[in-house]
């Protein structure tokens, strides 16, 4: 971490490129941010070069609270845009694979698998996202991003049923997004036979 104070000599079209203590790592900061904050604390992407490649797994889950009438329409396959679960599954998989583009300090991780599952309650849909990779850093952010986008996709597909007369969403909400489990284990050796 490096604390930056005072004038900043590296400037390109109103954007300052601030170098952190980590090799080849920098952060682009607008001149407005620097002026507003005065003292600016910067942390770069963590260097994981010395970490070993192992199997990394993470499972995250969350819920979208919906009206019982909306849940019944999902059960009866009567949503205008189609069943939201397979669409949310694809959206969640795509989102998990794009995590490093969405969260600036996340590493690009080639994922071995992303799996999404859904269960319906009386007034909610619960989603879970499982992610696995052989990597030098964990995949919990990928699982969190996957489940978050899956739930937002469900909201998009049922929102016409959830709006009140004023076009608001008085009771619809996404809640309880959390990491359920994180696992690290050695990569299994290939069979010698």
What is the topology?
Blueprint: E1 2-4, E2 11-12, E3 15-19, E4 26-30, H1 31-37, E5 40-42, E6 54-65, H2 68-75, H3 84-97, H4 99-102, E7 113-120, E8 124-135, H5 140-162, E9 173-185
Antiparallel strand pairs: 1-5, 2-3, 3-4, 6-8, 6-9, 7-8
Helix pairs in contact: 3-5
Describe the structure.
- A hairpin with a 2-residue loop joins strand 2 and strand 3.
- Helix 3 packs antiparallel against helix 5 (140-162).
- The protein has five helices and nine strands, in the order E-E-E-E-H-E-E-H-H-H-E-E-H-E.
- The chain has helices spanning 31-37, 68-75, 84-97, 99-102, 140-162, and strands at 2-4, 11-12, 15-19, 26-30, 40-42, 54-65, 113-120, 124-135, 173-185.
- The chain folds into two domains: 2-42, no CATH class; 54-185, Molybdopterin cofactor biosynthesis C (MoaC) domain (Alpha-Beta Plaits).
- The N and C termini lie far apart (49 Å).
- The chain is elongated.
- The strands form three sheets. It has a four-stranded antiparallel β-sheet.
- It is α+β, with helices and mostly antiparallel strands.
Q: What labels would you give this structure?
A:
193 residues; alpha+beta; Alpha-Beta Plaits; 4-stranded antiparallel beta sheet; 3-stranded antiparallel beta sheet; 9 strands; 33% strand; elongated
Number of domains: 2
Instruction: Give the CATH H-level superfamily of the largest domain.
Output: Molybdopterin cofactor biosynthesis C (MoaC) domain
Coarse morphology: elongated
CATH topology of the largest domain: Alpha-Beta Plaits
Relative strand content: 25-35%
CATH class of the largest domain: Alpha Beta
List segments where confidence is low: pLDDT < 50 over at least 5 consecutive residues: 1-26, 34-39
CATH architecture of the largest domain: 2-Layer Sandwich
Mean pLDDT: 84
- SSE pattern: EEEEHEEHHHEEHE
Instruction: State the share of residues found in helices, binned by percent.
Output: 25-40%
Strand arrangement across the biggest beta sheet: 7-8-6-9
């Amino acid at each position: 971490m490096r604390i930056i104070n005072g004038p900043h000599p590296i400037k390109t079209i109103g954007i300052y490129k601030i170098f952190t203590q980590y090799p080849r790592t920098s952060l682009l900061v607008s001149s407005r941010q620097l002026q507003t904050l005065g003292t600016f604390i910067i942390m770069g992407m963590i260097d994981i070069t010395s970490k070993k490649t192992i199997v990394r797994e993470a499972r995250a889950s969350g819920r979208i609270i919906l009206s019982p009438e909306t849940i019944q329409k999902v059960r009866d396959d009567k949503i205008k845009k189609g069943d939201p679960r397979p669409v949310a599954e694809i959206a969640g998989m795509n989102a998990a694979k794009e995590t490093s583009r969405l969260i600036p300090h996340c590493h690009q991780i080639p994922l071995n698998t992303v799996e999404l599952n859904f269960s319906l309650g009386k007034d909610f849909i619960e989603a879970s996202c499982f992610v696995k990779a052989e990597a030098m850093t964990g995949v919990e952010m990928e699982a969190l991003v996957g489940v978050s986008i899956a739930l937002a996709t469900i909201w998009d597909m049922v929102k016409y049923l959830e709006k009140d007369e004023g076009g608001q969403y008085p009771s619809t909400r996404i809640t309880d997004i959390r990491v359920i489990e994180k696992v690290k284990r050695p990569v299994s050796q290939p069979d010698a036979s």
